[in-house]
Amino acid sequence: MSTMPNQTEGTNEDDANLSAHELRRKRDRDRYASLSAEQKEARVKKARENRLRKKEESQRLHQYTPTNIAEVPPKDTVWVVVT
Asked: Which residue among 3, 8, 56, 77 has the highest number of C-beta atoms inside a 10 angstrom radius?
């Protein structure tokens, strides 16, 4: 019969086996879980607004402008195709 230490969820003994990244994610999850419903809704709303703002900025930066097109060669340019 093996004896295992009595560990409860969220104790420091559990956290000892986690990497720094996993520990940070666990703390973030615990912090989010402790928020009230209103605080959670505010975070969701803020994230949604930020996604929309970033999307609009990206679309505005990538839309057609005369400076984005390459110079068009003159009409009397002769193109030679070598096969």
From this structure: 56
DSSP notation for the chain? --------TT-HHHHTTS-HHHHHHHHHHHHHHTS-HHHHHHHHHHHHHHHHHHHHHHHHHTS--GGGSPPPPPTTPPP----
Contact 25, 18 (CB under 8 A): no
Asked whether 14 and 7 are in contact (CB, 8 A), the reply is: yes
CA atoms within 13 A on the CB side of 50: 6
Give the pLDDT confidence score for residue 17 in this predicted structure: 87
Low-confidence ranges of the chain (pLDDT < 50): 1-2, 4-8
Contact assessment for residue 23 and residue 10, using Cβ atoms and an 8 Å cutoff: no
